[in-house]
Amino acid sequence: MKTCVLAILLLMIVPLGHAIDTAPAFSDPVQQSRYEHLSRELRCLQCRSETIADSNASLAEDLRRQLRELIAAGKSDDEIMTYMTDRYGDYVRYRPAMKSNTWLLWAAPVLFLLAGCIAAFVVIGRKAKLPDDDLPADDRARTGMGDV
User: Fold this and answer.
1) Partners of 42 in beta bridges
2) 24-38, 56-70, 92-106: which range is least confident on average?
3) Predicted confidence (pLDDT) per residue in 40-62, tens digit
4) What is the mean pLDDT of the chain?
């Protein structure tokens, strides 16, 4: 029984040790740093909740290859992000830029917090205005309610 449990645990841990992009993309540390930074800024379009640096999907491999090619071609970070968003849309950015069509995305947490606070104040205010349900002991005796 112990060996079965140990084998299952090992099988669960093995995929965690598998590195996605093990070899450095560039021999130049500046280009390697840019590559790592940009790969953390681009979303895997297949996985949706991972960056291309974290994703093991074939589409993420293609995007990493494309990113290496753009950096090797001498493109700036802004040119690379513009190229990627023009080609794949704003969704490819892991942290979307503040634009007129993404303002709601950025404002949503604040709007939800404000709505929650307003709802809490309304509910608490209404509860405070309700009469007490507890009658004094002598009123209970007169109404025949006793100890209910």
Assistant:
1) 93
2) 92-106
3) 999 998 887 899 998 888 889 99
4) 81
d(CA 20, CA 23): 9
Structure-token match 């709802």, residue found: 119
pTM tops 0.85? no
Whole-number pLDDT of residue 12: 66
DSSP string for 36-47: HHHHHHBB-TTT
84 CB burial (10 A radius; 0-12, 13-18, 19+): buried
